[in-house]
């Protein structure tokens, strides 16, 4: 175990576990957050993530106040791929996703042009088993991937294809904040999203994004995308088979491709997930925990779990990314 030399906070570092900061529970998490805001944010820049243990966060109102104090304002979620409960402005439940199915490593909303630079998580109820919000360093992932594969993704970017309907995944209204067609189309045009309305009223979209970006503070290259998580081969086999049978290959709620539109093979997706797993750090949640994650530098996941689990989420520090199409990316 070692502690950070560059931070005024005594952040513990252990192999295969996220950096942990243990604090004395005072019953006043908001005052602690105000006092340690800058040091904590510096520690997140240094380490990529920090799990704060001992604050004793108790309810959604307290979490919202702490999130607000630690950020410069929380972002509303747009282009969600699954439903969330809204607790207050910018404070959400975890994505509704079957407890027995893991959500593999990803960077939140990395398919948008404006992404959160900072993710905030707070655990109010810890599961009886599993359910960790694990993390993986995006620079380490990039270094571990085959050079040829990285070169192709850097050259072409990656493509996200989505199909919206009222039966599975987020609806148009949940994803875009409105079901007004004109407003949805205006949003798509402003955010480099191709769209096509279907005869049944559904919507299909395609958007091409960078797969590797430079960190806005450090300038380091980061593997930053949701190529593996939002690919058909990451789905449980029985779920994949059912969705293809019902909606067809082109009607899956989401699927990722190479930037030129070519399918991404099952072998590539498995390789990506294996590299993520080799780079994963995990720590079981305890009720009252707070976790801050640099969303550019660090991927996160949600592991399968048993029992009740309540983890609240906030997104902050918006970062505007460039549109590959406007840069002439092939």
TrEMBL record:
GO biological process assignments: antibiotic biosynthetic process
Domain of life: Bacteria
GO molecular function, one term: dioxygenase activity
Span of domain TauD/TfdA-like: 30-314
Coiled-coil annotated spans: none
Cofactors named for this entry: Fe(2+)
Keywords: Antibiotic biosynthesis, Dioxygenase, Iron, Oxidoreductase
Name of one Pfam family that matches: TauD
UniProt name for this protein: Taurine dioxygenase, alpha-ketoglutarate-dependent
Species this protein is from: Geodermatophilus sabuli
């Amino acid at each position: 175990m070692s502690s950070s030399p560059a931070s005024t906070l005594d952040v513990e570092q252990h192999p295969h576990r996220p950096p942990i900061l243990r604090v004395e529970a005072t019953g006043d998490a908001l005052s602690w957050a105000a006092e340690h805001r800058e040091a904590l944010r510096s520690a997140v820049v240094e380490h990529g993530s920090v799990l704060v243990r001992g604050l004793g966060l108790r309810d959604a109102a307290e979490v919202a106040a702490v999130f607000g104090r630690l950020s410069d304002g929380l972002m509303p979620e747009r282009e969600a791929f699954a439903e969330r409960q809204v607790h207050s402005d910018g404070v959400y439940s975890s994505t509704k996703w079957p407890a027995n199915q893991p959500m593999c490593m990803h960077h939140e909303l990395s398919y948008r042009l404006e992404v959160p630079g900072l993710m905030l998580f707070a655990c109010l109820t810890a599961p009886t088993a599993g359910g960790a919000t694990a993390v993986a360093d995006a620079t380490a992932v990039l270094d571990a991937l085959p050079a040829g594969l990285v070169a192709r993704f850097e050259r072409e970017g990656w493509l996200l294809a989505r199909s919206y309907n009222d039966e599975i995944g987020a609806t148009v209204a949940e994803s875009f904040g409105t079901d007004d067609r004109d407003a949805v189309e205006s949003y798509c045009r402003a955010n480099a999203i191709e769209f096509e309305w279907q005869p049944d009223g559904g919507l299909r979209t395609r958007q091409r994004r960078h797969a590797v970006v430079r960190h806005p503070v450090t300038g380091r290259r980061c593997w930053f995308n949701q190529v593996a998580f939002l690919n058909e081969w990451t789905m449980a086999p029985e779920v994949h088979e059912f969705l293809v049978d019902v909606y067809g290959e082109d009607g899956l709620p989401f699927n990722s491709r190479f930037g030129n539109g070519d399918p991404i093979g099952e072998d590539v997706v498995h390789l990506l997930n294996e590299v993520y797993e080799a780079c994963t750090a995990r720590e079981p949640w305890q009720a009252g925990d707070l976790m801050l994650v640099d969303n550019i530098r660090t991927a996160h996941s949600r592991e399968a779990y048993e029992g009740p689990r309540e983890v609240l989420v906030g997104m902050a520090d918006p970062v505007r990314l460039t549109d590959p199409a406007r840069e002439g990316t092939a």
